[in-house]
Amino acid sequence: MMLSVSSNNHVFQSLSHSLTNSSHSLSNSSSHVLSHPSDYLFQRSIGYAGSGNRIREKLAKASNGEDIKIGVLGGSISTGHKLEDKSKEVYHSVLFDWFTSKFPYGQHTLVNGAAPATGSSYFTYCHGKHIPDDLDIIFIEFSINDGSIYPTERGDGDPGITKNMELLVRNLMQMPNKPAIVFLSFFSFKVDYYFNGQEAHMAIANYYDIPYISFKNAYYDHHNRFPKDVSTLFSSDEHHPNKEGHRMMSAFVTRYLESIEGVKAANTPDADIPLLDMWTTRKHKANFSELNPFCETFMDKTYQPSYMDGWYLMNWKKEKYYIASDTPGSLITFSVEASKGSVYMYILKSSQYDLGSVWCWADDDRDNGRELSGHWNISRSIGHMMLVSDSLSKGRHDIHCQVLSGDNTHFRIIAIFSG
């Protein structure tokens, strides 16, 4: 979604007072007194400040009248789910109004590439389907959808979350305009766990010197103490922030940006990004190579697989797009380009919808295929990355999937990708 320069003066005028006023009302409603609520909450919201060099460079360009292109990657929060007026109330629209008011001489652009019920693993491979490669600033919001690297009763505990987010960050930072990235972290009051994707992402923020602004840091403890205050910042589902929650996140970000603007940049090495990823040791440096992602997604409504029999395109409220089947034996074939030999399917995982399983294999090697199950005993329904093959030769391959018989036979595929 492309947005040109716009103004929303009443939001912008109130933004400078939002930290103090909102924090004061929260404190009064619960008798939880903070001596300097705006300063306190702002300081708490900074999960990692870093040097700010990349984002400061972009602010300097904007101050000089240059055009700045801002992008957003995230889940349903970044699409504005549960807001009455998404175009004005979602956090990045409020941020964009502030940006265009502060830097009025450039023709600035906002591109919202967010997609509901997706995590960073999807965008690791498919970001090119959602955002252009000429962005200057990118906000990334996946703290809820990515889940925790620590085990919880929700079924969390996957270190692959950190690996995929890092791959995404390395790809984004190598775009032509060397964009500045800012991590944003929300939390769900409904989920009722402290741990989420924030902890999976924090190591990346440190390693790549990326600012991390956390709504969770500022408000999680408060809502544990005063749960009746949840409607102040959350919508009726207690999962997605309401208008005020979005406004407060934008206030934290704008205050951070204002705090670093004009500050002398720290001396840094000439390298744009770290030489190696976080997982590669020095002795294996010669074997390291960057990810060259390949993606085909049904969010791209023009995409058609190579072959399908018994499958149909499906969309949910024009927000979520799948290729789906209900019939055992239904076959679908995708043509993919493998660079490092791995192919993944991104499917809907849920305890609902009577989801069954498919058998997927590469080329003619049906016997060494894998069963992918859409069902899990976890409360959330979300896209999930599943390995099909990790031993393919470099080049083009056909990936086949067939619906298996069983009590449940419904299956939904969101995307297929490889690297």
What does this structure look like?
Helix 1 packs across helix 2, helix 2 packs across helix 10 and helix 6 runs parallel beside helix 12. The radius of gyration is 22 Å and the shape is globular. The N terminus is likely disordered. The protein is of the alpha+beta class. Helices cover 31% and strands 23% of the residues. A 7-stranded mixed sheet has the order 1-4-3-5-6-7-2, with helices on both faces. Strands 8, 10, 11, 13, 16 and 18 form a 6-stranded antiparallel sheet that branches. It comes from Umbelopsis vinacea. This is SGNH hydrolase-type esterase domain-containing protein.
Question: Any chance you could write out the topology, listing elements then pairs?
Answer:
Elements lengths: L1 E2 L5 H22 L6 H9 E3 L4 H11 L5 E6 L1 H4 L6 H4 L1 H12 L6 E4 L7 H7 L10 E5 L18 H14 L6 E6 L11 H12 L3 E3 H11 L4 H4 L9 H18 L33 E4 L9 E3 L1 E6 L3 E6 L5 E8 L4 E7 L7 E6 L7 E4 L8 E8 L5 E9 L7 E8 L1
Parallel strand pairs: 3-4, 3-5, 5-6, 6-7
Antiparallel strand pairs: 1-4, 2-7, 8-18, 9-12, 10-11, 11-18, 12-17, 13-16, 13-18, 14-15, 14-17
Helix pairs in contact: 1-2, 1-6, 1-12, 2-10, 6-12, 7-8, 8-9
